[in-house]
Amino acid sequence: MKTLLRIPLLVVALLALAACQSYPTDRISAHQADFNTWPPDVQAKVRAGQVDVGYTQEQVFVALGEPSGKSQSGYPGNITEVWIYHRRAARFGFAIGGASFGRGGGVAGGASVNGLKLGVDTDGEVVFTNGRMTSVNIYSH
Question: Could you give the angle at which helices 57-64 and 40-47 cross, rounded to 10 degrees?
Answer without folding.
Answer: 40
